[in-house]
Amino acid sequence: MRTKSTKYAEFNNKIINHLILFLLLFISNIAAQCFAPNPQNPRELIPVACNLVKNEPQENLKFKDSTSNNSSSSNNMFDITLNCTVSTDLCSKVQKAFDTAGSIISSYLLLNTRIVLSASFESFCDLYSSCSENGILGFASPARWILMEDDDNIQRLYPQSLVKQFELSTHPEYSKNDIIASFNSDVSYWFAEDSTPINETQFDFLYVMLHELHHGLGFSSAWDEYFTGYVTPLLANDPIKEIDAEDDLVYNNTSYSSFKFYECAFDKYVILMENGQKASEITEKLNTYFTENNNANKKKNFEISFPTCLCCPIILA
């Protein structure tokens, strides 16, 4: 007998799959502009070159059934490379948890192209001098974001892992990895193989990892201000505009002639609960600053108009 929680989970899985299929059917164009996360700050995006690549045309897009077999473990559409710097026994538990997570996600997402995950499990205290007991558990991010134009003519950031599922005949060049993830080995994690039950000071590693990997798959919002306090989408250079050396607006130590706010793929469906207004309408209103203000490209005027939003990183954790 299925429980209410089981039925609820099945309903959620159907919603996710239908949403991805809906996105696929209505994507119209690709803007040849890509972004990568800053290795020192995964919430900051860096413009990267991505030349268009032409593949053999696909006659029909068919998603693999989640019950079919593949070249790695059964029902697992993830190719995982793990860099683990702790004991062999603990690394074995971490690897098994990653494999389990890949199988779980593959069981409810309709995937036709394998997802490449580069992961690490190492001391954040050694790497980042982050040695607090309440430190970061871990993070995951798309290795590359790709600008795509939706059916509403708005460009949004799509994670590479999702773009690959479209099997487009022409697409921007992909990064070798789809997702990058890093987890803190200083944390007291609990694993399914442990001989004792989880206690109040431990964190379930599989649970934490599944949460973060969904961010790596692009399930995040550019409107999330949980960590930074900023309440605008990502601010980045507009790839349509040419660089003007006379412009004094500097972002990431680079001068650009124009900027634009960008949303994530699923922000298309974000609304304000109080009145039903789409968040995308607010994004477009913000972007009128760059099109209607004669001095929109000047740093001073921009700071006057948006005093708290000059640098608005995307939130992925």
Number of domains: 2
For the largest beta sheet, what order do the strands appear in spatially?
2-1-7-8-16-13
What is the 3D form? globular
Largest sheet: number of strands, sense, barrel closure: 6 strands, mixed
Mean pLDDT, to the nearest integer, reads: 76
Query: Count the strands?
Result: 16
First-last Cα distance? 36 Å
Q: Tally the helices: what do you get? A: 7
SSE string, helices as H and strands as E: HEEEEHEHEEEHEEEEHEEEEHH
Q: Which blocks of ≥5 consecutive residues have pLDDT under 50?
A: 24-31, 60-73, 240-257, 307-317
- The structure class reads alpha/beta
Task: Give the C-alpha Rg.
Answer: 21 Å
Estimate the helix proportion, in percent.
25-40%
Residues in β-strands, percent: 15-25%
Signal peptide: 1-32
Protein name: Sequence orphan
Keywords: Signal
Layout of secondary structure:
Blueprint: H1 4-26, E1 29-38, E2 41-48, E3 52-54, E4 78-84, H2 88-108, E5 115-122, H3 124-128, E6 138-142, E7 145-149, E8 155-159, H4 160-165, E9 170-172, E10 179-184, E11 189-190, E12 203-204, H5 205-216, E13 234-237, E14 250-251, E15 254-255, E16 259-264, H6 279-292, H7 299-305
Parallel strand pairs: 4-5, 5-10, 8-16, 11-12
Antiparallel strand pairs: 1-2, 1-7, 3-9, 6-10, 7-8, 13-16, 14-15
Helix pairs in contact: 2-5
Protein name: Sequence orphan
Keywords: Signal
Signal peptide: 1-32
